[in-house]
């Protein structure tokens, strides 16, 4: 959904979604984002989604 790459080190991840793509537009139009089991997510993945949202909104 967020284009988070899967790597061995999970450090400094960058989303593969471009800010002006249709996928970014879908995220931009979302009323809410529900991330099930967020507490189990890697910190780098959460930061990646945060950076993505800051870029596209």
UniProtKB/TrEMBL annotation:
<keyword id="KW-0378">Hydrolase</keyword>
<dbReference type="InterPro" id="IPR010285">
    <property type="entry name" value="DNA_helicase_pif1-like_DEAD"/>
</dbReference>
<dbReference type="GO" id="GO:0016787">
    <property type="term" value="F:hydrolase activity"/>
</dbReference>
<keyword id="KW-0227">DNA damage</keyword>
<keyword id="KW-0234">DNA repair</keyword>
<dbReference type="GO" id="GO:0005524">
    <property type="term" value="F:ATP binding"/>
</dbReference>
<comment type="similarity">
    <text>Belongs to the helicase family.</text>
</comment>
<keyword id="KW-0547">Nucleotide-binding</keyword>
<dbReference type="GO" id="GO:0006310">
    <property type="term" value="P:DNA recombination"/>
</dbReference>
<protein>
    <recommendedName>
        <fullName>ATP-dependent DNA helicase</fullName>
        <ecNumber>5.6.2.3</ecNumber>
    </recommendedName>
</protein>
<dbReference type="GO" id="GO:0043139">
    <property type="term" value="F:5'-3' DNA helicase activity"/>
</dbReference>
<dbReference type="GO" id="GO:0000723">
    <property type="term" value="P:telomere maintenance"/>
</dbReference>
<dbReference type="GO" id="GO:0006281">
    <property type="term" value="P:DNA repair"/>
</dbReference>
<dbReference type="Pfam" id="PF05970">
    <property type="entry name" value="PIF1"/>
</dbReference>
<keyword id="KW-0067">ATP-binding</keyword>
<keyword id="KW-0233">DNA recombination</keyword>
<keyword id="KW-0347">Helicase</keyword>
<feature type="domain" description="DNA helicase Pif1-like DEAD-box helicase">
    <location>
        <begin position="2"/>
        <end position="56"/>
    </location>
</feature>
């Amino acid at each position: 959904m967020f284009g988070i790459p899967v790597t061995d080190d999970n450090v400094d991840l960058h989303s593969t979604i471009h800010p002006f793509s249709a996928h970014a537009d879908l995220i931009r139009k979302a009323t809410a984002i529900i991330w099930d089991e967020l507490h189990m997510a890697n910190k780098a993945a959460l930061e990646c989604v945060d950076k993505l949202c800051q870029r596209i909104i």
